[in-house]
Each structure stands twice: as structure tokens, then as C-alpha cells.
Amino acid sequence: MRLYVPLGITFIAGIIMILEFFVPHDPFPTLGGHVKDWYTIVASSAIFLGILNLLRVHLKKINLRSRNWQYSPVTIIGFLGMFGTGVAFGFTEGPFFFMFNEFVVPMGATMFSLLAFFVASAAFRAFRASNWRASLLLASAFLVMLGRVPIGDLIWRLIPGAAESAHPNLVTEIGEWIMRVPNMGGQRAILIGAAMGVVATSLRMIFGIERSYLGGTD
């Protein structure tokens, strides 16, 4: 019973959402609206479960003195401070707004800035001209970056006859063409593949083939 009830709910909700998309006549739009409302309610409830899980995990790490447990008190104090300030003074302006702009935003910017070093490291490994594909990738990346930085325009202006050319900056135009044509084609192929994967996974979940979301339910 514990297995068939969630599978049945998933099947009914999934079929309703599919029929709402393809059959724009009652009662499917109404049923689809109800399913969306229930999704919002369940997602909102999951936030409170996430809060409890956050506190449970970090309190356990503090109690067991697990690895890097020193960061857990900072996490708990920061969360309770932001939550308490929002409840006491509101979540739109005042102290909460100040704390969000002065603490959360800079920390988020720091985390995103660290990604630049990982991207640079991955690019260094990927751009090694070990074969013709890597060489093509290296040349394309070099042209795109050269066309988007001021030194690319300076190099173009130093070429004899570039000032009289019909192209203001050929390097920039090549970089823009790479981004607009080959890059866009690759992005569309990736998006189409991802969409097909989403459809396949959704159908597997609706028909009960994919059951990983049920956890250890028997």
C-alpha cells in the first residue's frame, strides 16, 4: 500500500497535467489548476522540512565533532539571525533588508567569483591542442575572447590597412559570428536533448518505472 498510493497519485497528477496541455477544455484546465495549487502547498511545506533538516544535520555535526563542525554554529547563528530579523521587522525593508544586502549578497558574489577559477582550470585542461577538435575549440575560444576585450580592438587597429577596411573590427565580428551561429546551434542541440531527457524521465515517473523519488518505500 505504501508503494501503490504514491505511484497512483503521481500517475493521476501527471496525466492531468498532460491532458491540460493538450486538451484546453473543462474539466482539465480546472483540474490542472488544482494540481498546481497543491504543488505550491507541498513545496511550501517542504521549506519547513528543509529548515528542520538543516538544524538537525548541523546540530548532529556539532554534537559528534564531525569534520569542519566549526562552521556549523556559524550556519545556525546566521540562519536564526536572518530568520528572526525577518519575522521581527519584516522581510522587505529595514534590518533584514540591510543584512541581506550587506552580508548575503557579498557572500553570494564571493561564491560565484570562485567559479571563475574552476572555469579557468577546466578551460586550461580542455583547451590543450591534443587533437583537431581541441585545436578547433582553442582557436574559437581565442577569437571569441579576443573580440570581447579591449586588446582585441587595439590589435586590429595596429594592422596596416585596418582603418580603411570595410569592417570596423573583423576580430569582433568573427567572435560574434561564432557566438551567434555555431555556438547557438550547439546550445539548441543541448536544449533539445535535455528536453527529450525530461520528457523520458517524466513518463518513467508517471508510469511507475522510475521510483527513485520514493526512497526506501516498499
Provide a short characterization of the protein structure.
This protein is an all-alpha fold and 218 residues long. It is built from eight helices and no strands.
Protein described:
The chain is an all-alpha fold. It has eight helices and no strands. Helix 1 (4-22) packs across helix 8 (182-206), helix 3 (71-89) packs across helix 4 and helix 7 packs parallel to helix 8. The longest helix has 37 residues, at 28-64. It is extended.
Q: Helices, strands, pairings?
A:
Elements (H helix, E strand, L loop, with lengths): L3 H19 L5 H37 L6 H19 L5 H32 L5 H16 L2 H9 L11 H11 L1 H25 L12
Helix pairs in contact: 1-2, 1-8, 2-3, 3-4, 5-7, 7-8
Q: What is the SS-derived class? A: mainly alpha
**Uncertain runs with pLDDT below 50, 5 residues or more?**
none
Characterize the overall form. extended
Oligomer: single chain
Q: Would you list the SSEs in sequence order as H and E? A: HHHHHHHH
Number of helices: 8
Strand content: under 5%
Overall pLDDT: 83
The beta-strand count equals: 0
Distance between the termini: 8 Å
The largest pleated sheet is described as: none
Calculate Rg over CA atoms: 27 Å
Residue share in helix: over 70%
